[in-house]
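Hey, resending since the last one bounced:
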Amino acid sequence: MFQPDDLALPIVQAPMAGGISTPRLAAAVSDAGGLGFLAAGYREPDAVADEVAELRGLTDGPFGLNLFAPAGSPADAAEVAGYAARIAHEGELGEPRYDDDRFEAKLALAAGLAVPVVSTTFGAPSAAQVEALHGAGCAVWFTVTTPVEAELAVAVGADALVLQGFEAGGHRGSFDDLDPQDFGLLALLRLVAGVTDLPLIASGGLFDGAGIAAVLTAGAAAAQLGTAFMLCPEAATSPAHRAAIESDAPTDVTRAFTGRRARGIVNRFMREHEDAAPSAYPEIHHLTQPLRRAAREAGDPDRIHLWAGQAHARSRRLPAAALIEDLATEMSAARLT
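The structure tokens again:
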């Protein structure tokens, strides 16, 4: 099964759900010696299968597919209704509902397609589910945010762990959104290295080769970068989101858009509604989806989630292959000094 040590370069492109991760981006990263990823979150299984087929038509290299594990149980209906009333003036809202993002169907799809790497976010599959993926030849990587989550992942058969530091953009991968613990990447890396000898992939706030070299020195087998790839032409990042990434605006962690903690660039919607947003994922995600879609189409940066890591302003507007070439050069220089 595929492992980080099999990579020509220890660089993993983070899966970015919602359409930003594309087959073109994943193929460009894999062809350049890294590991490209597709994001299955929020997509129907048939659409995921189509993207895997497209990716395989673009590259013979390895790649990964990320799945959202079920995120707990349904949220408090009264809290969700209260939040819906609060934001009703913002625009068209959807119907809040609980679902598991077709997790079982996507697990079966990943196994059936023999995806080289399957990663999960928000929780851990069961030991039986991991065994089924192993039987299909899939390596299974778990996203974890604490040493305790790492131990749970190890117990059910993880092949590698993606360590998501607090600096990372997008949703926090915490197993429990109600009782999160926040670790910076370096502290998390050293703590988890003390409880397992599995390969560790470091993620959060990385944007250049020196940062990659630093986490490799601290014990990581590879580095995962997300925001750093969002300005690549192969990424389907919206124009408003690209402009925000290139700014020096601060980031913060919020539940305002989806009901689950996520790091994004601060905008009006976040400032006005964060304090009232309940822990209610995916109910709030479905509630605000039409609002966010309309704002994105209108180019309105104040009503969309601008997911980005803390170092977003250092991202580069380069094709993915050129970015990886620069990262590799910087990494080599940093490790020689």
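The mean pLDDT is 97.

Sorry for the duplicate.
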